[in-house]
Amino acid sequence: MENFDFRIPTEVLFGKGQIEHLADAMRPYGDTVLLCYGGGSIRKNGVYDDIQRVLKGFTIVELSGIEPNPRISTVIRGRDLCRKNQVKIVLAAGGGSVLDCAKMVADCAVNDADPWEMVMNPALIHRALPVFTVLTLAATGSEMNNTAVISWPEKKLKKGCKSPYHYPVLSICDPSYTFSVSRRQTAAGSADIMSHIMENYFSRVEDAVIADELAEGLLRTVIQELPKALGDPHNYSARANLMWAGTLGISQITSAGKKGSWSCHPISHELSAFYDVNHGESLAIITPHWMRRILTPATVTRFDRFAEKVWNIQEEDPMKEAEMGIDALQAFFASCGLPSTLREIGIPDDSLAESMTDEAIRMKGFDSAFVNLSREDILGIIRDSL
Amino acid sequence: MENFDFRIPTEVLFGKGQIEHLADAMRPYGDTVLLCYGGGSIRKNGVYDDIQRVLKGFTIVELSGIEPNPRISTVIRGRDLCRKNQVKIVLAAGGGSVLDCAKMVADCAVNDADPWEMVMNPALIHRALPVFTVLTLAATGSEMNNTAVISWPEKKLKKGCKSPYHYPVLSICDPSYTFSVSRRQTAAGSADIMSHIMENYFSRVEDAVIADELAEGLLRTVIQELPKALGDPHNYSARANLMWAGTLGISQITSAGKKGSWSCHPISHELSAFYDVNHGESLAIITPHWMRRILTPATVTRFDRFAEKVWNIQEEDPMKEAEMGIDALQAFFASCGLPSTLREIGIPDDSLAESMTDEAIRMKGFDSAFVNLSREDILGIIRDSL
């Protein structure tokens, strides 16, 4: 098992009605709040009204219209609102995109460095406004982690920025706020959750027994609960287990003792930077193809474990068992209505892969991933996914 | 799933050599340290020397001789040392008993209330010195939780005291410090770990899917790794997985979304208060008898799950399958050299159970446990365990 530093500074208030505790938790930090949200779904699902009600007495400035794959230009808009209104607290109400944007706004409000330079070099972040979140989508785990993923579409860039200042102070995770999430977003969010778990699960460390056990348990949970949530969007128990799986799935719970870079997320980020596609959907499409490409006699043991423990498959021939596990994953995604080809989500060809520079590939750290991916491998995965 | 508040203020530095980071972490809090330890094992296993080396420049006052089932008189001795020497930091080096004593010393040093009154009523704890720990035994999970269990042997009292001030600031968990732990203590510590997990696992909440999955994963980990550690005490990987299982086993990871009181721990604490027995050994003895007593058609489903998921047992008759799971637990404890009767650990009869007052039983909260235990049930469990 690798050495690790386990530290979760975020408090999570989980469950129905927890928003009633929000004002008390925020008050010590000030009374002027930047409320960050997206395209307006929080006005329909009751979250906006709940926030206005519980934050009576606070001055609320609004940053609305945060897009999926949040943009650096939106971050700058939020930064300017904070500075103009002397905002003391950033409150994000939404899914991962809103939370990520809010984290970066909280940085930019109180640091002088150029916003995109901070995304590229988190060492420039020396302080941040306190961030609170009200989660409305089970997916990215941003509610309890240190990452913000920001895009600069004009330059075809999308980058994850990790900073100790990116842990929210407190996150309200009320599963009933996800009742109105569409089938499509519910499935895509779950594909993202599963990908986070699998990115750590497929690593070069073999003796982090606990991280592996917990990863398998979380994967089985999503596989069991997602169809329930799709069948009955108001199933509280299913929504609750998906939401908590999303939070833990990218926490240190599944990475403690493991090491190495991820594989599918960097490829997906590149796809999003070029085509602004849905993150979870792109992961559902490329993950099985990544698996087939790296399945060899050298990796078959881990894939067999994945097939047996996650999909309950028993087959004597190891290579066949491994393939059956990958088939099961692909079939599960399809059964949840997720797309299976990049063309379905608007990516017509592999020109993007051709345009990736050697430097871009090097920066993504594929050489420390479970299996080192070359330019040809990445190109092949994208072609296979078309 | 029940609502919960997930909050882990403690940072854990896990792995070989992490003690090198201790001084830097402590320095902001002051330079006068109370070093708490037990019977001197840290002088043999290298921990004492490592601490003296890395804390060069700090003034170190020593509280040694902390006993298993740490006593309130020892807490008072530590408090007086802190006050006399203007101690700013409490550093515990040892297992759960040392850590628990150190937490309570840190309270008493800076609060005026009577020490035992604070144990009984944690609301009297309004502040505490910062606590750091260097763990040398995988067992109680005290290194990342808010509990301190303190005894008053003259009054036959043993009580767990939970306070938000009881979270250590930072814990060094280096599995190689457990290489020298005896077979007996290794097995007893693991029985304690398994008991923590099972106390939450057997609860009235059935839809906390993730807590259950994680509990089963941690139990399987201990079942797999403990024999390896007993067979080869220097097996780093086995020691590491046991140590991390101990930390997570009593964390909010396995309780989030569950609810209810525990059953075997309160009985074990009563046994310890009267007879000063080894905590883990007493849990290994009574847990299977508790299980047999509460196994009924109303609880059989949970026991079947336990048998199937933890012990890989498949049997058609549900009651038989449940019993086979309990048998497997009992056989596992025996195979690890743990005692199977209370007489073996020095408890001659059930007179203790007779002397438990109704008030003592009421205070232990058995009425909100998985199955409500009456005085007769408790007496029966102790008799069956003799």
Automatic annotation (TrEMBL), chains A, B:
Residue ranges of every copy of the Fe-containing alcohol dehydrogenase-like C-terminal domain listed in the record: 186-385
One Gene Ontology CC term in the entry: cytosol
Gene Ontology MF, one: metal ion binding
Signal peptide location: none
Matches recorded under InterPro entries: ADH_Fe/GldA, ADH_Fe_C, BDH-like
Transmembrane residue ranges: none
UniProt KW keywords: Oxidoreductase
Keyword Lipid biosynthesis found: no
One Pfam assignment: ADH_Fe_C
Residues covered by the Alcohol dehydrogenase iron-type/glycerol dehydrogenase GldA domain: 9-175
Record-given protein name: Iron-containing alcohol dehydrogenase
Species whose genome carries this gene: Stecheria intestinalis
Higher taxonomy: Bacteria, Bacillati, Bacillota, Erysipelotrichia, Erysipelotrichales
